[in-house]
C-alpha cells in the first residue's frame, strides 16, 4: 500500500516534474491537478473541488472569500487554529458557541438573525479529544435557521465512516453539509495539500478570489500523484476502513480494561490516554520510548492546563501484535508510574 503511493509519487515526479515554479492560474495546473480535483469531488459526492497548498490555506481562504460584513460566522469554540485564523481574516460578524453545545448554537443563531447569510463552522472530529461534532443536530438547526454548514474533515477523511467519507458518513448525514475542507497531509497520501469541496458556485468563487490559491505555488506533482493514488486505493479497498475500526476497538478495549481512561468517541482512531499532569505525560512518553513505542505527551498550550494526555493514533497498517505490544508497554509504564493499579 505504502509502496503503491510512493511509486505513484515517483511516477508523477518523472512524468510531470519536480514542481511548476508557479501558482495554479499561471502555469501551475497540469492534467493531474484537474484529475485529483475531480476525484476528490466524486469521492465526497460534491459538484467540484479546489486544491490548496494545505488545509491551513484552504481554511485561510474560504471565509474571507465567501463572507462579507453583512454575514455571520458561528464557530465552535474549540475549532482548529487554522479555522480561527481563517475567520479572523474575514469581515463577517463573529459568533462562538460552546463546544458541541446545540443549545448554545441555537442561541447564537437567534442572536445572528439579522445577518444576510450565516455559516455554522465546525471540525467534523476534534483532534485533541477525538470527539465528533453533533452533525445531525447541526444540520437540522441549519435547515431551520437557513444557515450554511461548513466542516473541517482533516481528522475524518479517508478513514472515518464505513467507506472513509468522514463524519457525515459516520453520522448518516451524507450530503447535508454544504462545504467540506480537508487535508491530503494525513490519511490521503500523508505529504501535504488541502482542498475545499462543495457546490460549483463556491468552488468557482474560490478559484477567482481565495488568496492562498491565487498567491501560493501549486502542489508539486509527486504530492498530487501520491494523493491521487491514495484515493484510488481507498475506493478499491474499503476493508482498510474496517481494519482501522477494528484496530481502534481492540486498542480502546484493552486499554480501558487495563484501567486507563481513553477520551473521545469510542469509534475514532484518535485515542487520547488521559493523564492530567503535564510532567507525568512527558515522563510516561519517555518511558514508552525506552520500550520501543513512540508516543507523544500533549500538554499546555496544546490542551488546557491540567488536561495532559498521550495521544495515540491507530492506523490500518498496525498489526494486532504491534497493538498488543503497545498496550503491554502502556500497562507496564502505567503500573510503574502508578497511573493504573
Ligand atoms: C482540523 C485541522 N484542520 C486543518 C489542519 C491543517 O492541515 P494541513 O496540515 O493540511 O495544513 C489540521 C492539521 O493538523 C487540522 O488538524
Using brief descriptors, characterize the structure shown.
alpha/beta; Aspartate Aminotransferase, domain 2; Aspartate Aminotransferase, domain 1; 3-stranded antiparallel sheet; 14 helices; 12 strands; 46% helix; binds pyridoxal-5'-phosphate
Can you tell me about this structure?
The chain has 341 residues and is an alpha/beta fold. A hairpin with a 4-residue loop joins strand 5 (125-126) and strand 6. 46% of the residues lie in helices and 16% in strands. Helix 3 runs parallel beside helix 11 and helix 12 (239-257) packs parallel to helix 14 (320-336). It folds into 2 domains: 2-236, Aspartate Aminotransferase, domain 2 (3-Layer(aba) Sandwich), CATH 3.40.640.10; 239-336, Alpha-Beta Complex (Aspartate Aminotransferase, domain 1), CATH 3.90.1150. It has 14 helices and 12 strands. The mean pLDDT is 97. The chain is globular. The structure holds pyridoxal-5'-phosphate. Pyridoxal-5'-phosphate is lined by residues 54-56, 59, 80, 82, 123, 127, 152, 154-155, 183, 185, 194.
Low-confidence stretches: none
Biggest sheet character: 7 strands, mixed
Number of beta strands:
12
What number is the mean pLDDT?
Answer: 97
Named at the architecture level, the CATH assignment of the largest domain is 3-Layer(aba) Sandwich
- How is the CATH topology of the largest domain named? Aspartate Aminotransferase, domain 2
Helix and strand run: HHHEHEHEHEEEHEHEEHHHHEHEEH
Gap from first CA to last CA: 40 Å
C-alpha Rg (nearest Å): 21 Å
Shape: globular
Strand order of the largest sheet: 1-9-8-7-4-2-3
Instruction: Find the CATH superfamily of the largest domain.
Output: Type I PLP-dependent aspartate aminotransferase-like (Major domain)
**Each distinct ligand:** pyridoxal-5'-phosphate
User: How does the helix and strand content classify structurally?
Assistant: alpha/beta
User: How many distinct domains?
Assistant: 2
Query: Which CATH class of the largest domain?
Result: Alpha Beta
Count of helical stretches: 14
Specify the helix fraction band.
Answer: 40-55%
Amino acid at each position: 500500500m505504502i509502496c503503491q503511493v510512493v511509486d505513484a509519487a515517483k511516477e508523477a515526479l518523472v512524468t510531470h516534474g519536480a514542481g511548476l515554479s508557479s501558482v495554479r492560474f499561471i502555469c501551475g495546473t497540469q492534467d493531474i491537478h484537474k484529475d485529483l480535483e475531480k476525484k476528490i469531488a466524486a469521492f465526497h459526492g460534491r459538484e467540484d473541488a479546489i486544491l490548496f497548498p494545505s488545509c491551513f490555506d484552504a481554511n485561510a481562504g474560504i471565509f474571507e472569500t465567501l463572507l462579507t460584513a453583512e454575514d455571520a460566522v458561528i464557530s465552535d469554540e474549540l475549532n482548529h487554529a487554522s479555522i480561527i485564523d481563517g475567520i479572523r481574516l474575514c469581515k463577517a460578524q463573529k459568533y462562538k458557541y460552546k463546544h458541541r453545545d446545540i443549545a448554545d448554537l441555537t442561541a447564537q443563531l437567534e442572536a445572528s438573525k439579522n445577518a444576510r447569510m450565516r455559516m455554522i463552522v465546525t471540525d467534523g472530529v476534534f483532534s485533541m479529544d477525538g470527539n465528533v461534532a453533533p452533525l445531525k443536530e447541526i444540520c437540522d438547526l441549519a435547515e431551520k435557521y437557513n444557515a450554511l454548514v461548513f466542516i473541517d474533515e482533516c481528522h475524518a477523511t479517508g478513514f472515518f465512516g464505513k467507506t472513509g467519507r468522514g463524519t457525515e458518513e459516520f453520522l448518516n448525514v451524507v450530503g447535508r453539509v454544504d462545504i467540506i475542507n480537508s487535508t491530503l497531509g494525513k490519511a490521503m497520501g500523508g505529504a501535504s495539500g488541502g482542498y475545499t469541496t462543495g457546490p460549483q458556485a463556491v468552488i468557482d468563487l474560490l478559484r477567482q478570489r481565495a488568496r492562498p490559491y491565487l498567491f501560493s505555488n501549486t502542489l508539486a506533482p509527486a504530492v498530487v500523484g501520491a494523493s491521487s493514488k491514495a484515493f484510488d486505493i481507498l475506493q478499491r479497498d474499503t476493508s482498510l476502513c474496517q481494519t482501522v475500526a477494528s484496530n481502534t476497538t481492540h486498542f480502546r478495549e484493552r486499554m480501558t480494561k487495563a484501567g486507563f481512561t481513553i477520551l473521545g468517541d469510542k469509534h475514532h482512531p484518535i485515542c487520547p490516554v488521559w493523564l492530567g499532569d503535564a510532567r507525568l505525560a512527558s515522563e510516561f512518553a519517555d518511558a514508552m520510548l525506552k520500550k520501543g513505542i513512540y508516543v507523544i505527551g500533549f500538554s499546555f498550550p496544546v490542551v488546557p492546563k491540567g488536561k495532559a494526555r498521550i495521544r495515540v493514533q491507530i492506523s490500518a497498517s498496525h498489526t494486532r501484535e504491534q497493538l498488543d505490544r503497545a498496550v503491554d508497554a502502556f500497562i507496564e509504564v502505567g503500573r510503574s508510574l502508578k497511573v493504573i493499579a
